[in-house]
Amino acid sequence: MRIVSGKFKGRRITAPKNLPVRPTTDLSKEALFNILNHQFSFHELKILDLFAGTGNISYEFASRGAEPITSVDTDFGCVNFIKKTAQEFEMDITAIKSDVYKFLERSKVKYDIIFADPPYHFSQEQFDKIYELIFENELLQEDGLLIIEHSSQTKMEHLEHFSNSRKYGGSIFSFFEYEQVENDEDDDDDFDEEDYNNEEE
């Protein structure tokens, strides 16, 4: 995997081949962070990375100055690899081995951005449960953002705080946020598909 921007731009990280992961592609990852750049200044953002796998997304946030970052995965090998990589790059990442649902049930910390990349074969109910635990336990800051990566087989737009979604190849990013007071009409343009495409051109 390659870090696409920030302090460690261009650095390659090679994960063990035996890890049970499906990393977010570089193309999708770059597109996602282009969107986030319009909405956030990453410096000192508190990040939660769920189903973190190799830590691919965590490293991107760390490279851009976000801290602290909490990476949660149920696989011992993944957690160890994230710990090793974070130490090597001196990134403020805490890797936790835990079932994601149990972690969300007991967590009391509020985050600025929560990113979740569950296995694509998870049921609709399993995807919905991630959303429910985060908003029921108020784990997102009032101006924060929840991003769930999923395939086209999973639908997320029926959930209350759904904001928008973007499709890149076989991956979809669904965005969730609390309703904001409309004191700046331009804020709604951050996730406009046409504007984004024009910028890329």
From TrEMBL:
Protein keywords: Methyltransferase, Transferase
Pfam families the UniProt entry points to: Cons_hypoth95
Mind listing the GO molecular function terms for this protein? 16S rRNA (guanine(966)-N(2))-methyltransferase activity; nucleic acid binding
Q: What is its EC number?
A: 2.1.1.171
Origin superkingdom:
Bacteria
Recorded hits in SUPFAM superfamilies, A to Z, give: S-adenosyl-L-methionine-dependent methyltransferases
PANTHER family assigned to the protein according to its UniProt record, in alphabetical order: METHYLTRANSFERASE
Q: What is this protein called?
A: 16S rRNA (Guanine(966)-N(2))-methyltransferase RsmD
Species assigned in the record: Paenimyroides viscosum
Taxonomic lineage is:
Bacteria, Pseudomonadati, Bacteroidota, Flavobacteriia, Flavobacteriales
